[in-house]
Amino acid sequence: GAGVSQSPRYKVAKRGQDVALRCDPISGHVSLFWYQQALGQGPEFLTYFQNEAQLDKSGLPSDRFFAERPEGSVSTLKIQRTQQEDSAVYLCAGTPRGSETQYFGPGTRLLVL
Amino acid sequence: DQQVKQNSPSLSVQEGRISILNCDYTNSMFDYFLWYKKYPAEGPTFLISISSIKDKNEDGRFTVFLNKSAKHLSLHIVPSQPGDSAVYFCAAFPTGNQFYFGTGTSLTVIP
Questions:
Q1: A94-111 pLDDT, tens per residue?
Q2: Rg (CA), chain A
Q3: CA angle (A90 as vertex; A86, A92 as ends), nearest 5
Q4: Which sign, positive or negative, has the C-alpha torsion A47, A61, B43, A14?
Q5: pLDDT tens digits, A49-108
Q6: Which single residue of A10, B25, B81, B94 could bond B29 by disulfide (Cβ 3.0 to 4.6 Å)?
Q7: Do A59 and B98 touch (CB under 8 A)?
């Protein structure tokens, strides 16, 4: 594709519901990052993959958050038993091999009621 | 602990004038810095970057300056255009690691 895509673009969930957010990176993007952006804040790191290996998950706020990238391309961020404080924009970014620049998708805006 | 800080949440500039956006960081291990531009309902778009071995990088109307001793970088846009109105984030990281983002500066260019 022309760029990183994310789906859904918007998600409204009831508190306690599980959600799954999808990221389709650009073909050839070896590294994939997930960020959480709260209103009025900058993106904050959640987790990082190199190919299918999750190399850093230090930013995941709790064990309700889980990310995977089983075939080294598409990635899914899953949030179990959502809470209101999980409401944010979730951004996915990819990095081409040999580059340090991260290219972002449009984000998924999650609202937990 | 905010390792990258953008202390001006907003900035207004007249069209044609220079816009200067500032960013400070605390971690001396950061060696690569980027500026991203973000429109509403879109993801951040890469604008310009600079490595710590340089003190200036220029790309068209955009110039980034890095002062390592002061742990400060700035983005200059000249001349400013109405289409430049957006939120600008600076990001920093030690090579091969996660990005740390500032909280953003909302730039408004007045026609």
A1: 988 888 788 999 999 999
A2: 13
A3: 150
A4: positive
A5: 999 999 999 899 999 999 999 999 999 999 999 999 999 999 999 988 888 788 999 999
A6: B94
A7: yes
Query: A33 and B98 in contact by Cβ < 8 A?
Result: yes
B19 close to B11: Cβ distance less than 8 angstroms: yes
Cβ distance B43 to A45 less than 8 Å, yes or no, reads no
For each of chain B's 111 residues, which pLDDT tens digit applies? Answer: 789 999 999 999 999 999 999 999 998 889 899 999 999 888 999 999 999 999 999 999 999 999 999 999 999 999 999 999 999 999 998 765 678 999 999 999 999
> What's the rounded Cα separation, in Å, for the pair B36 and B70?
21
**Would you give the DSSP letter of residue B9?**
S
Distance CA B20, CA A102 (A): 23
Integer Cα distance of A59 and A57 in angstroms: 5
Within 8 A of B42 by CB-CB distance, chain A residues are: 106-107
